[in-house]
Structures are given as C-alpha cells and as structure tokens.
Amino acid sequence: MKIRLLILLPLITILPAAAQNDSIPKETGKVITSKFPTTRVFDVQYNQLGPADYTTKAFGNEKEKARVNNHYRFRVSANIPVYKTNRFFITGSLRYKYEVFEFDNVYDIPSQTNYNRPTQEFHYFAGAVSATYFSTLFKKPVIYNVSGTVDANQYAFQRVKGLASATLVLKKNDRTTITAGALAMLDPSSILPFVPIFTYEHNFKNSPWTLDFIMPQRLLLKRKLLEKGQLSVGTELNSENFYLRLNTGLLNGTYELNQLELRSGLTYEYWLGKNLIGTFKGGLTNVITTRITERGEKTSKYVLESKQDPQWYFNIGISYNPF
C-alpha cells in the first residue's frame, strides 16, 4: 500500500478540490478520483485474502514451506489540498496500513522439522507531498507531477522516496480519452523503477460498456448497474510493501518486503449519498513476485524470495469525496 503504488500510476494525487475554472484540471481530478478510491479525500478499506501455500528461498536456497491460513489488511488514506492556483496545486496525503498473517505449521527444509510461527502483525505509515502542474506540449494538454514520501513502521521512520511523471493528453472527446507518458520512481528498491504510461478509455457505441485500459496497471470493462452503481470486470496490477525486523543467524536488522499481485475479478461501487461511496471487490489474486531486501537495497539484491499459490480475496470499503 505504498504511495508509489502502481495502482496510482497516472497521477496519484490529483484531486477535484484543486480544480479551478480550467477544464483540464477539473476533468482530470474527476477521472482520477473515480478510478482510484485512495485518491479521494478520505478512504477506508478492509481486504481479506484466502489461505495459500508458499515456498521461501534464502540466498537462492530453499528455506521453508508453509501455509498462510488467514491474511487480511486494513487501510486508511486521506488527501488534503494544501495550495492551489489555476494550473498548479500542492496536495498532502497520509496513509496507514495494518496487515496480519496467521500461519499453519512451518516446515523448515534444511533441518526437515516443523515448528509453529506466531501471528505476524505489521504497521505501515506514509506521508507525501505532491505538486502538479498543467501546461501544454505540442498544442496538447500535459500534466506534470512530482511527489516526495516519508514512510515508517511502528518502530521508527524508515526512508524518503520520490516519483516524477509527465502525462500528455493525446485525444479527448465524448467517447474516447487517450493519454501517454512516463513515470520514474526515485527509489532503488522499486520493482519497476521506470514505467511508460499509456491509457485508453472508450465507451462503445450503443452500448453501456466502457473499456478502461491503463498500461501496465489495469484492463477493465465497466458499466452502470442500478441507478447509482457501477460494475467493473477485469484485471488489475497491485503492489504491497511493509518493513519487518529480522533477528536470525543470517539476517539481522530492518528489511523491506515488496510484492507484486495480479488481481482478477469484479468491482462494484455504489453512491450512498452525502458524498459517500461504497466499494466491494472480489476475485482471485496471483502473486507475481515477493522479495525481501535490506532496507533501501535494489530488489535484484534480495535476500529472501517467496512463491505463493493463487488465493481468493474480497475487499469492502467506503470513501468520502465531497467534490
């Protein structure tokens, strides 16, 4: 649930609160907050994942096999406008995640023994400041964004990170919006330090369905369902991270877990009134990669790597968005 989440690729902190009379900032704010609940003024989510088996390697050698019986996450996010003009604004963001793992017996491969691992709890905090500027390039709207992040766990502040992006609006009409750009992660531990951005949203003629494609983050088909609801079907790329303390014969100190997940399933959002939006998600999660590195190291220099079976998931949330 890091600020640099791939789920927020296009423009992580663009909010309608910062939009003025200019149509591009205003429309951009509406698009971003409609696609990503965590960019709204306030958002709370609970994520439950099903049991899954996994295998872990330490320094390239098989270390253990185990099963996670219960795994859940609780998240809170807030985004507050700090300063705004017609084409420039600054936003402050706060994030908190509480993540819990409950294990079955763990099988240690080198010693060929089983042992019990207690429930693991992790707290993750992050605060960010983001600056966004709207301009033109090649006579087309372009949006520049830079963000700085400080994160922590329950023990101490950990690291300072950053990102920078530029997004060019290539086409926008009543049915189709196309943008292209790039995003750079100013963080050596990022799994993807540089990411090209391409988005394509198209409402099919004489159809309630809309195609929502953001490379490489999502491919969804969306439609209105009931008077105040929206249904989405498809696949989304998600990233997770948190810090952990290790004290073993081989590993001692603070380490960071980075994980990429591919989630396929359904999302339903319903406008509850009074600026409240309820969200439900469900489907299947496939973990692409899970790596643990020393704090601040490149993910290619990982000390632990896990392979995990697919698992079901569901997510419920509520957002407050007065704009």
Automatic annotation (TrEMBL):
Keywords: Signal. Residues 1-19 form the signal peptide. It comes from the Bacteria. This is Outer membrane protein beta-barrel domain-containing protein. It comes from Flavobacterium rivuli WB 3.3-2 = DSM 21788.
